[in-house]
Amino acid sequence: MGIAAEAHNVKILGPGTECIVLAHGFGTDQSVWKHLVPYLVDDYRVILYDNMGAGTTNPDYFDFERHSSLEGYASDLLAILEELQVESCIFVGHSVSAMIGAIASISRPDLFTKLIMVSASPRYLNDVEYYGGFEQEDLNQLFDAMAANYKAWCYGFAPLAVGGDMESVAVQEFSRTLFNMRPDIALIVSRTIFQSDMRQILSLVSVPCHIIQAEKDMAVPVMISEYLHQHIGAESIVEVMATDGHLPQLSSPDIVIPVLLKHIQLDIESRR
Is 231 a catalytic residue? Predict the structure, then answer.
């Protein structure tokens, strides 16, 4: 493997010729897809990787300038695909990685046959005639709590994000990957994500998009899925799942896996 693939802990599974790239969100790593992967490996070439800054990556590779914008992560993704000589893929992006995939697809639409966006948001902050779910004061308090006592913050944030108590297996799993992040890097990454505004790029997306959203998600109001649908430049479809939490692939795999498999196999044209 090349430098980018090694730095991002790339794993390639399955004998298939059609590629599926699975990309995780903040506070997790590629293990967040553990319930889905077994259903894909017989038929696809599955590519898993860790975003720089995840607790499984070498913190020495984290570039505080490059990774202060989502464009830096999109460049990482394109570097991985280039090294692996991927000619086209289905990209499944959770949370921030949905927007990372969208950015990458704008510069290289030829590499993506479709984008599957799970729990995605182009902007987390409320704005005029836009409800992202957070006020700036909310985010400032979140950042201050992370900086003051990262471990305590993780204990409080994990149940809120997942939608369960600390006894839940999914909450414990998310807590583990959150804890694995270096606190100063986690703070930078969270600022980059929560202060981002990708609304202006949505119209530039030319790759078909499948937008999948939980009914209740503390980070992404359900109405955001419709906002994405209305503003993405390409054809898109939306499915809202009867699940709670920002990491439904961990907390409700029995509901989410059939939905993901359907959208991986489904062409938008067939829904017309």
Answer: no
